[in-house]
Write a structure and sequence with these properties.
alpha/beta; 6-stranded mixed β-sheet; 3 helices; 6 strands; globular
């Protein structure tokens, strides 16, 4: 099997697992009318991408569940991009990168409602320009 075939097979498998897990925590919608959207196109990197339309998806139990999926996918990550409808011009780009061994936290909580400003993730660190 070539590297491209292996990447494609792993991408599809992880996509299916992420897509099966997230309905336990919210509703999917590709047009922002739900809580999240798992992008359904493989762009080549060893990564899944989830657009977060509702901050409920950023709760630590959801992030832990997603991170747990990665134990079977060494070198893979899941990127969550915050894209709350109506906040596109008010909030800067931000998100999380989940890896098996760490969470890279690029959230700017000062923009969040008070109930989400204190969210913390075990094993997280602030992102750098190298991430």
């Amino acid at each position: 099997m070539t590297d491209d075939e292996e990447q494609s097979r792993s991408w599809q498998s992880l996509y299916e697992k992420v897509s099966a897990l997230l309905p336990d925590y919210g509703t999917e919608s590709a047009i922002g009318e739900g809580d999240y959207w798992v992008l359904d196109e493989n762009w080549g990197p060893r990564q899944q991408k989830v657009c977060v339309f509702n901050l409920i998806i950023l709760k630590p139990k959801v992030i832990r569940a997603l991170q747990g999926l990665l134990k079977d996918y060494p070198g893979w990550g899941i990127m969550l991009a915050v894209d709350v409808p109506g906040k596109e011009d008010a909030w800067p780009p931000m998100g999380l990168i989940i890896r098996e061994h760490e969470i890279i936290d690029g959230l700017q909580r000062q923009y969040f409602p008070p109930e989400y400003q204190s969210i913390q993730y075990e094993g997280s660190r602030i992102g750098t320009d190298k991430d």
